Amino acid sequence: MRSMTARFSLRVVTVRVLLPLALAFLVQLPRASAAFAQQPGGSAAAPAVKNPVAVTPASITAGAAAFKKYCAFCHGANAKGNGPLAPKDSNPPDLTDATWTHGSTDGQIFTVIANGGGAKSTMVGFKGKMPDQDLWNIINYLRSLAPKAAAR
């Protein structure tokens, strides 16, 4: 009898406590995604973040290798946005021009690479999939390809 009462109590706790918490989380999820998608660079604080990795030939070379490994599939080997495995109709941006629609500072670019492009983008985030050092090296590499007037 006691185990039947315990199972009933567990079901009541699940229905009365956990279900409302799960629903509350699901309701907040679209709001959080929308807030992220509305901000270029992923957050208001991103423009102030400075690249801690010095621009050196070694950093640019490491960035090129990391770009080839993680990014070229969608953005193309030359970073022109013509990658062979980009999702259909995703139109990855040309990362060698002066137009950066998701933010142009190193901090904004880092945030987008780390967290993804937002709710309206097919770009996934790479935080936890590659070290931060590689993210910063990729930014240094992209800067080496971009027009010299591009903002840092």
Structural descriptors:
152 residues, mainly alpha, Cytochrome Bc1 Complex, Chain D, domain 2, 52% helix, globular
Secondary-structure arrangement, i.e. CATH architecture of the largest domain: Orthogonal Bundle
What is the fourth-level CATH superfamily of the largest domain? Cytochrome c-like domain
Task: Report the average pLDDT across residues.
Answer: 79
| Rg on CA atoms, Å | 21 Å
User: What count of domains describes the coordinates?
Assistant: 2
Content of β-strand: under 5%
Poorly predicted parts: 21-38
Could you tell me the number of beta strands? 0
Q: State the end-to-end distance.
A: 69 Å
Q: Mind explaining what this structure looks like?
A:
The chain is mostly helical and 152 residues long. The protein folds into two domains: 38 residues; 100 residues, Orthogonal Bundle (Cytochrome Bc1 Complex, Chain D, domain 2). 52% of the residues lie in helices and 0% in strands. About 12% of the residues have low confidence.
Topology summary:
Layout lengths: L1 H37 L18 H14 L1 H4 L30 H10 L16 H14 L7
Helix pairs in contact: 2-5, 4-5
Summary of the model, kept short:
This protein has 152 residues and is an all-alpha fold. It is built from five helices and no strands.
